[in-house]
Amino acid sequence: MRRVGAEYDVVVCGGGAAGIGAAVGAARAGARVCLAEKYGFLGGAATNAQVLSYCGLFTRGDAPERAVGGVADEVLAALRGLGLDTTAHRSPTTGNWIVLLDPELLKLALDRIVAAHGIDVLLHTRVAAATRTGVAVEGVTLAGMDGRRHVLAEAFVDASGDANLAMLAGEDFRVGDGEGHLQALTMPIRVGGLAPGTKLDRRRLQQAIAEYNADGAYPIARTDGGIFVHMPLSGDLWWMTVDLPLPDLSSASFTRAEMEGRARSHAYVELLRRSQPGFERAHLVATGPQVGVRETRHPAARHTMSFEELTAGATHPQAIARAAWPIELHGEAGKPSYTYVGGPGHADVPYDAIRAASLENLWYGGRVIGADVRAYGSIRVMGTAFATGQAAGVAAADYAARGRTVDVAAVQAALRAQGAII
Questions:
Q1: Which regions of 330-371 does DSSP assign to beta strands (E)?
Q2: Which of 12, 80, 196, 279 sits at 20 to 30 Å (Cα–Cα) from 392?
Q3: What confidence score (pLDDT) does residue 2 get?
Q4: Where in the sequence of the chain do the CATH 3.50.50.60 domains occur?
Q5: What percent of the chain has pLDDT above 70?
Q6: Nearest Cα to 221, choosing from 174, 260, 173, 179?
Q7: Over 80: is that where the pLDDT of 126 sits?
Q8: Rounded Cα–Cα distance for residues 338 and 93 (Å)
Q9: What's 59's DSSP letter?
């Protein structure tokens, strides 16, 4: 029976990879969908934090093997239609396969995709409150430019990355590792003004970093030079070397991180100008609207994926997605560690990992799904987020269509029909 006054079958909170996966997955399943996003554009970390690569779409190995399809395929096809080469690129630093992005093309591609699927998108809109009846979310209060509006729906997906909806609905959550420790932030930067054909000399950069760290204002933790690659279209250098600790989730801590991150970015570009041939006229093109956040809140789920599941490449009869990205942890700023996924190079994400622990009509997508401290290092990336988000959206649509119950086998069949890989 439809909830009295419900405007939508599914409301999705967050317009990043998981939110796009959820909204499109639900719409493809026949649901009427509302997607709320706090920024003025979609894309999540790829567009708001300049994380300009999709990680987790492929297993690690000598050749890229797809681990994620479905909505991610639609996004990649749209980007190719706009002239972007989406061929898998192997990182020389980590050996992992990624797809490089252009943020402006991605914004346009996602705008077109959600419009094509008839999704009601509300940008500049936050979920400000949630109401519940017993074990179900009844509605959410959306705060936008025109004030507040309470929206009722049959089902909900938290793809916020920060568990905003789950928290407001009263679900339990942990912060970071449960003892207050959070993974470090990174502010990826784009550097332009390079002479044609210029390549960054890693050995020379490492020497320059060692000299800078002797008395520089902002010592560089990534003494290996960090991750850098030339971007498609612009030819800008994309550089990940600005790392910062996050002591807590206060606005004061985020403010300090944003300001210090920008100061570091300018200082490090100056280091490139002084030390790298061809970088004499280099300048900072962009830092992104916000610093890159890896970890905040983890809401309680009905299944918590474990480190052991990932390292064994575990399979599950109720699989709804695959996790293939290595367990990448940033417990200390600038000191990432990698543990590779075992078995065939991917592990199954079980259905219960995307279900809220105590709410029957709330699903998770992206970095808020159930995962322990170490497994989280794998499931949080955007490629995997497309897959878990799509599964959450399809499950939410199934719940709405069936009258508040879910047939997991039917969800799996619907995902396969949508091109998902499970």
A1: 337-339, 347-350, 362-364
A2: 80
A3: 61
A4: 8-59+68-89+101-180+295-417
A5: 99
A6: 260
A7: yes
A8: 12
A9: -
